[in-house]
């Protein structure tokens, strides 16, 4: 068969709709049990449809105009490897950053208000085919709808197609998992800023320029918003944005975006806060900076491929070398540091050949400690002060 012309009831792709979702709406409209059944009739592979490898074939089968075919292709993820796709020119990892939405019983994410607006749009054709998937709902770090200022809703078990003799309401409920009737949880505009940034890069909203993030692939820029937001909200303690309720995750990520607007100054301010809040009995960089340092330190397996880890490590290393007291032989991300600006009192004592208690007494007497740092735990001592004293002692000798 060269087209879907055997079916008198067809759908047109909508702006923002990926090909796999358009295929699903076609099944819903004509009453086939699943996308898989329709694909089998026309020798299509669903994975090819979901990954943009069947766009030209679908354009013929659906008898799309050139404009419609362009719309469908532009919002369909395009495969660039086993674990990466491009969407609107932006690189995302699958399934880490984005799901492809294949199969009956799948998890469905949507904005209930968008679905209700679709249902109210009489120009969208028969009621059962009006609601449609926006490709960005499948981006796992999008938690809100910046248009309707509400969280997305998610259910498992969607994508089921009921027979055409069932009511439209029953068929919509089975396909969308009841999301068309789901309540929408309102969020303040400030909590949608991170999602607005992602949607801006995808061309679904006006773009907001954030130079540091703009230089990164979209999936990795999104990861930065999680990691930095976790520092803002939880400090050195472990947290995981994707384990939070959608409204809390959106707030966390938006606060991460705020810290990224003035990079690296915003991040350095957060690191300084962690440094100052570290308990006096904590030693080492993992103790001072907790989850954030450990996350960047951990480069096992596929994590080593993340460009952003290297970028964030370089920024944190620069902060540590300038502001954090380092002990003799202490490493930063496994690398030795030849000349950190600050050193611990213990390190200074070894350089001068005296005991740590004597070193602290000397530092207090000569005003070598930073204001409020009575034991040198926070900021230690300036290397140049200690080396200057060492050179002076050597010269006198």
Can you put this structure into words, describing what you see?
The chain is mainly alpha-helical and about 400 residues long. The protein has 3 domains: about 180 residues, no CATH class; about 110 residues, no CATH class; about 55 residues, no CATH class. Helices cover about 45% and strands about 10% of the residues. It contains 17 helices and 11 strands. The strands form 5 sheets. Strands 1-2-3 form a 3-stranded antiparallel sheet. It has a two-stranded antiparallel sheet with strand order 4-7. A hairpin with a 2-residue loop joins β2 and β3. The longest helix has 17 residues. It is elongated and about 90 Å long. The model has no long low-confidence stretch (mean pLDDT about 90).
Short description:
The chain is 45% helix and 8% strand. It is mainly alpha-helical and 397 residues long.
Which terms summarize this structure?
elongated; 45% helix; three-stranded antiparallel sheet; mainly alpha; 397 residues; two-stranded antiparallel sheet; 3 domains; 17 helices
SSE map:
Blueprint: H1 19-30, H2 35-41, H3 46-50, H4 55-61, H5 66-74, E1 78-79, E2 84-87, E3 90-93, E4 106-110, H6 112-120, E5 144-145, E6 150-151, E7 153-158, H7 168-176, H8 193-202, H9 211-214, H10 218-234, H11 246-260, H12 265-277, H13 285-297, H14 307-323, E8 331-332, E9 335-336, E10 342-343, H15 345-352, H16 356-365, E11 381-382, H17 383-396
Antiparallel strand pairs: 1-2, 2-3, 4-7, 5-6, 8-9, 10-11
Helix pairs in contact: 4-5, 10-11, 15-16
């Amino acid at each position: 068969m060269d087209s879907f012309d055997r079916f008198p009831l067809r759908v047109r792709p909508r702006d923002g709709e990926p090909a796999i979702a358009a295929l699903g709406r076609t099944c819903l409209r004509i009453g086939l049990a699943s996308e898989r059944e329709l694909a089998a009739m026309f020798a299509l592979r669903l994975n090819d449809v979901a990954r943009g490898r069947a766009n030209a074939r679908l354009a013929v089968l659906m008898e799309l105009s050139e404009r419609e075919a362009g719309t469908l292709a532009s919002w369909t993820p395009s495969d660039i490897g086993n674990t990466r796709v491009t969407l609107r020119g932006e690189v995302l990892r699958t399934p880490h950053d984005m799901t492809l939405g294949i199969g009956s019983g799948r998890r469905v994410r949507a904005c209930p208000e968008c679905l209700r607006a679709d249902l109210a749009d009489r120009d969208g054709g028969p009621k059962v085919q009006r609601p449609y998937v926006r490709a960005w709902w499948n981006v796992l770090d999008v938690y809100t709808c910046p248009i309707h200022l509400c969280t997305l809703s998610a259910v498992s078990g969607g994508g089921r197609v009921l027979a055409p003799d069932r009511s439209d309401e029953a068929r919509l409920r089975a396909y969308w998992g009841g999301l068309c009737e789901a309540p929408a949880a309102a969020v303040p505009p400030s909590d949608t800023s991170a999602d607005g940034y992602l949607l801006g890069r995808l061309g679904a909203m006006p773009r907001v320029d954030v130079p540091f993030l703009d230089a990164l692939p979209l999936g990795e820029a999104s990861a930065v918003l999680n990691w930095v937001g976790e520092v803002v909200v939880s400090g050195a303690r472990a947290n995981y944005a994707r384990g939070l309720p959608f409204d809390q995750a959106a707030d966390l990520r938006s606060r991460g975006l705020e810290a990224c607007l003035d990079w690296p100054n915003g991040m350095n301010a957060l690191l300084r806060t962690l440094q100052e809040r570290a308990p006096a009995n904590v030693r080492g960089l993992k103790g001072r900076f907790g989850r954030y340092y450990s996350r960047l330190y951990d480069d096992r397996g596929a994590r080593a491929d993340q460009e952003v880890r290297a970028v964030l490590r370089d920024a944190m290393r620069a902060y540590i070398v300038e502001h954090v007291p380092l002990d003799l032989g202490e490493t930063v991300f496994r690398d030795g540091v030849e000349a950190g600006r600050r050193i611990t009192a213990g390190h200074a004592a070894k350089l001068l050949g005296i005991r740590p208690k004597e070193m602290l007494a000397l530092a207090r007497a000569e005003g070598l400690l930073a204001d409020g740092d009575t034991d040198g735990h926070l900021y230690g001592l300036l290397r140049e002060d200690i080396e200057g004293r060492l050179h002076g002692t050597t010269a006198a000798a």
